Amino acid sequence: MSERSMSGASTREPEWLIDAEADDQQVQNQLTQAGRPWLLLLGLVMVALNLRPALSSMAPVLSEVSAGLGLSGSAAGLLTTLPVLCLGLFAPLAPVLARRLGSERVILGVLVILALGMLVRSTLGVGGVFFGSVIAGASIGIIGVLLPGIVKRDFPAHAGTLTGVYTMALCLGAAMAAGSTVPLSRALGDSWAWGLGIWALPALLAMLVWSPQARHGHGAHRATYRVRGLWCDPLAWQVTLYMGLQSSLAYIVFGWLPSILIGRGLSPTEAGLVLSGSVLVQLISSLGAPWLATRGKDQRLMIVVVMLTTLCGLFGCLYAPVSGLWGWAVLLGLGQGGTFALALTLIVLRSKDSHVAANLSSMAQGVGYTLASLGPLAVGLVHDLTGGWAAIGWIFAVLGLGAIVFGLGAGRALHVQVTSERTAD
Q1: Check: CATH 3.40.47.10 for 3-424?
Q2: All structural domains of the chain with their residue ranges
Q3: How much is the pTM?
Q4: Are strands 419-424 and 223-228 parallel, antiparallel or unpaired?
């Protein structure tokens, strides 16, 4: 299909534009005048640290939450699925809000909502734990779309490096929550509710650090860019499906790995530490894999390497002797850090300009995370049906091989064939 025909077929596509992409030169001048890029960088790191604790803090105490609230395996699977589903469902709302209010103000307001969601999740019983998970997932989905655009706008000369810093902050936040939720629960009266609710505090702290950006933010812009043809482009769908399938494996790990390891004989504290250690290792490959991938003619080889590494780590954690568990966890972390970082890198590399990248990012995260939510749900259903964990290896295999297939398409040195034109409100 030609670029022209794809453009003509895209008249019903949503005109997703992230505020941070609108008037690049204008906002860059504002940043220079403000003279405080270090404060923006600190704010970005603090916000990014809060985009995974709501997900990874639940996994180590999931068995206790299920026992305390009387949840079945399927209901527990739904509990791990809802936040991931909301990442995708609420991602398209981010550009709409940003155009009206400005990205900085939206992020500030959503941080408050994120903190409230984590408090609701830990205090209002069965209904609260599900509703709070929805609120938290929706909040993370909105912020997650906006932050990369701000990085590309305000640090254009260092966008790659700061994307790596952003990814590292995500991993660090996930690792902190996975490793410390159970010890915190024990220290706070042996209560899983306190262990989960305490993660509202870092979100409130991030809100305070970010608040100067909302006061001096760039606001909404009248200039918009319509990107045509994206939803008809095969390469865009390959990037999106790779994002979704690798994310599905990641959220299975966030949601279920501690429960799997507890089923293999580990204590909740030990299982949480294994997850935390695996996520911490992602800091290495989240920087290294994209750097190596951009040194070759395309990214296909690196995509296969990191996905096979991920699968080896998953199968090792599931089937190999427990005595070697830490080695498999490290392998899993190296693989998953690379798969996620490459998914973000592909969005940039497959786009001709920042406006296309903003739209492709919204598509990949909106559709990809919605697809990713099916993985944790499937694990809960299979566990309920079989009464064990052995059969979920098939889920790992299907998702991993699917990610390789679509990754081989997404990793080619091509651009999505779309048109980008400036319009006005």
Answers
A1: no
A2: 3-424
A3: 0.79
A4: antiparallel
